[in-house]
Specification:
The chain is α/β, with parallel strands linked by helices. It has one domain (about 1-180): Flavodoxin domain (Rossmann fold, 3-Layer(aba) Sandwich). The protein is about 40% helix and about 20% strand. The chain has six helices and seven strands, in the order E-H-E-H-E-E-H-H-E-H-E-E-H. It has helices at about 15-25, 45-50, 65-75, 75-80, 100-115, 160-180; strands at about 1-10, 30-40, 50-60, 65, 90-95, 120, 145. Strands 1, 2, 3, 4, 5, 6 and 7 form a seven-stranded mixed beta sheet that branches. Helix 1 links the parallel strand 1 (about 1-10) and strand 2. The longest helix is centred in the last third of the chain and has 24 residues, at about 160-180.
Length: about 180
């Protein structure tokens, strides 16, 4: 069975909610399992054994959070041994603003994955509009972008972003199946 590891940091619970829905999407694919962990307590063995790693961080001041950056910095052993070379990688981010400079975070995650020799999975879901119930309402194709209002994580991100997160997980899982079957 192929495995997707989802590692994330969540300052206020919103990114954790997105990670859970990405996991649900991954599990929709037959023959693909998902393991979820926080950046503060990574399961290094699960990350090393995974077929794909999905990276998730909130956007703080145009960058990943400090906790997620610490996780990135702790991967030097994996980098040195090329432990993640040729794994699939994808990323997501959440912020309070509609833009919030989320694209810079997705670039940061993609560059990090590339430094590890990973292969980035884009997100080709066409946007259906810009309302809270629409899919991919921010029109991101590099990875998943979600937006949370100033409300508890149980209420936001809105329904469209949550459905988009599940489609993102499903998309990553389908790429993992395809990649692992052709290897």
């Amino acid at each position: 069975m192929a495995t997707v590891a989802i590692v994330y940091h969540s300052g206020y619970g919103h990114t954790a909610r997105v990670a859970e829905h990405v996991r649900r999407g991954v599990l929709r694919a037959d023959g693909v399992d998902a393991v979820v962990m926080t950046a503060e307590q990574p399961d290094w063995r699960a990350l090393d054994d995974a077929d794909a790693i999905v990276l998730g961080a909130p956007t703080y001041m145009g960058s990943v959070s400090a906790a997620f950056k610490t996780f990135m910095d702790q991967t030097s052993r994996q980098w040195l041994g090329q432990a993640w070379k040729d794994k699939l990688a994808a990323g997501f981010t959440n912020s309070g603003g509609l833009s919030g400079d989320k694209l810079s975070v997705l670039f940061q995650l993609q560059l990090f994955a590339s430094q590890h020799g990973m292969l980035w999975v884009p997100f080709p879901l066409m946007p259906t509009g810009t309302g809270p119930d629409d899919l991919n309402r921010m029109g991101s194709h590099l990875g998943l972008m979600t937006q949370s209002d100033n409300a508890p994580a149980e209420l936001t991100p809105p329904a469209g972003d949550i459905r988009t997160a599940e489609l993102f997980g499903e998309h990553v899982a389908a790429r993992v199946k395809r990649w692992s079957e052709s290897a």
